[in-house]
Structures are given as C-alpha cells and as structure tokens.
Amino acid sequence: MNTVTNLPGSPQVAYRGDVLMLEDCAVADLAARFGTPLYAYSQSAMLAALSAYQRALAGRDHLICYAVKANSNLAVLQTFARAGCGFDIVSAGELARVLAAGAAPSKVVFSGVGKTRAEMQQALDVGVMCFNVESEAELETLSAVAVQAGRTAQISLRVNPDVDAKTHPYISTGLKGNKFGIAHERAVAVYARAARLPGIEIVGIDCHIGSQITEIDPYLDALDRMLDLVEAIEATGVTLHHLDLGGGLGITYADEQPPSAGELIGALLQRIDARGHAHRQLMFEPGRSLVGNAGVLVTEVLYLKPSDDADGKHFCIVDAAMNDMARPAMYEAWMGIVPCRLRDGPPVTYDVVGPVCESGDWLGRDRALAVQQGDHLALLSAGAYGMSMASNYNTRGRAAEVMVSGDQAGLIRERESPTELFRGEHLLP
Ligand code: LLP
Asked: Which domains does the chain have, with CATH numbers?
C-alpha cells in the first residue's frame, strides 16, 4: 500500500507513493492520454465543495448560485445544475452556457455593471430569477427594456457596503472606490425609485465584497451594514424577499487558512437570526470555493535552462503559459507547482515559465523542483479563474479539459486547433 501524501487544497489531489493522483487517476497518465497543457478537474471535489454550502444552509430557504465566471465549462455547469445549484451570470454568453447545461432560468441571477439592452432583453425572454442592478442608470434602462418587451424584471440592487475585504486590490469589490454597486447612502432612495418604475418588481438586495477572502469579519461587517439597510428600506414599505451575500470565500493555495463554508455560513446565520431576519431567503454566489481546489493544470517540461552565474536564475520552460493561466502574471498570484511523478535527486530552484514572448509570462518563481525535460508538472488549485480567463495570445490554442470521476476521465473540452483560431477572420480582397 502506497503512502498517501496530501497537498494543500483538496483531498482529491494527493500523492500515492510517488505518483500524483486526481481521485483515482494518475495525473501523468491523463497528460499522456489527452496531451498538455491540460486542465483536469475532480468532479467529487466540486460536489463536496457544493455540499458543504448546502449542508450549512439545510432547513433554510436558500439558493446557491454558482458564479459561472470561475469556470464556465458546460460539464462543470451541468454537474452543479444536476446537484440543484442555481447560477450567477454576468453576460449573455454565460446565459447561453447555463441554458445549454440544463439550468432552470428561475434559478439564474444576472450580475454585472455593464449589462447591454440586448442582454437584458434575452434574460427577460428566458425569465431569469433576478437582475442584480448595479446603478441607477441601469435601473432606468432595465425598466424601459422590460416595458417595451411587455415583461416584468425582478430586481435586487447590488449595494456597495463599503467594507474592506482585505484581499488583492484587483479582486476587492466592496469598497467605495470600486466601480461596483450602488453607494450604501443612496440605496434607500434608489429602492424608492425602483418601487415606482414600470416593469420592475423588487425581490431582494445583494452585495459582493471581493474574492479570495480568508476571514469571516469582513463578511460580518458587510452583513451588518446590509441588515441596517434592509430595515431602513422595509420601513419605507418596500418588501425584500431575499438577501444575497455574494461569493468571495477564499481557498488554500499555499498556507492560507480560510474559514470553511460551514464556519462562514454558521457565523452569518447566527448574526441573521440574532437580528430577527431568519425568515429571509438567503442566497450566495460562490465561484472559486466550489471549483478552485478541484482542478489542476498539467504541463510538460519542454526545456531546462540553467544559469552559469552563481546567483543567476535557472529556468524551467513548460508548455503552459500566461494565456492558459493568467493569475500569476496578472495578480502575482502564488500557485503550487508539483511534479506528477516524484524523482530522487537534489531539487534545483527554478522560475517556471511559459513559451509566451513576455517576461511577465511566468507560472511560479523560485520553486525547488527535481525535474527533467519531458516530465509533467501540475499547477495546483487551478480549477477557478484558469481556463475561464484563458486567451489565444501568441495564437496559442486553448488547453483541453477533462473531468475525472473515480478512475474514469472524460474529455469535456477539446484542445483548440490553430485553424479554429482564425476562423472568422478575413483576408483583404
Ligand atoms: N459574485 C459576483 C458579483 C462577482 O463579481 C464574483 C467574482 C463572484 C460572485 C464570485 O466570487 P468568488 O466566490 O469566485 O470569489 N479572476 C480573479 C477573481 C475575480 C473575481 C471576480 N468576481 C482571480 O483569479 O483571483
């Protein structure tokens, strides 16, 4: 029996002896079978993450709306739809995806600061559950579009609670200086306006304060400010059925210790009940915490490029790049990088970089690795904001994706071929 060595993140990604496993599949075998770069996901890790939210909310009127932007593969959406999940979308593209994956429109909320009239129209036509409205101008436009279409838009105002989520500035969204939401001080007046607008039906209130949040306190601060508002708004005669607290719960990439979904929701429910709001429908929009730890990005070592200088950099050049995984280049995010098969021998400290022609194209810096050309490496906790942020920069086709369940692995997205990349472009006459 091989010893099992766990890695930060999900128990479904672990070494059995020297071999990195995703559930009961050897990751190197997946690379050999499907090629690299390859995104591979554990379906049971996704379902386990979802059921932690579901268990914490059992017995409550609630809806968990998976934030599609974290990973929008149809098979991922289908996995969540079958498990009873709703969806948080931010574009007509995401709407088309969730419908193709079998989602019920009555469980879809539409977020985002820049919804177009055409997007509003499409969402009204299929009957989404709620528009999370982010500005007064958007509210007026939605009313006009709904009236013209002869429909009623159910809405919630996304309020900016002005709390510090204590996360990376690019992914902090609940502070006053952010572009998101309606200012806390304006909320009562905007609800009063919404109540008078034709084609608009108020159903709730929402906030989302940021992403990769590793503490409970910012959530409790936001909750308190939201409940103050709910009370002030309802005192004016407007009824708010649901309270949507957004997403944002962090995951472990290195040594972060975020609360579990159970701990976070337990603390929130306690406060909600203590303040007399136990009757309200609760909604959450988790993205990263449902899929992040469930995925790895598998890549092959193309070349090792040692430095002759004593203090020089050694490079490990791999076939995945910033176009496949943008997080390190974009946020200087630290993501674990481990060999798919452990080797004996002393590790060397490498910068792990991709083939894209930019110095910003790196996946990890100063990583101690015992590797040889042709080995496979796995970038850990790559299930969220990996493939969904991938681009075709350097005319690189996007990676293939596979879903693993036990010892089975199925292709859920084909690797993009070069000709697909310029289909739709035209030579001049
Ligand atoms: N709801 C709204 C309105 C959002 O804007 C987001 C994420 C979520 C829910 C889901 O948040 P989560 O549970 O995944 O933290 N690309 C960045 C993260 C951007 C998050 C954007 N909004 C990254 O790779 O770290």
From this structure: 4-42+292-421 (2.40.37.10), 111-286 (3.20.20.10)
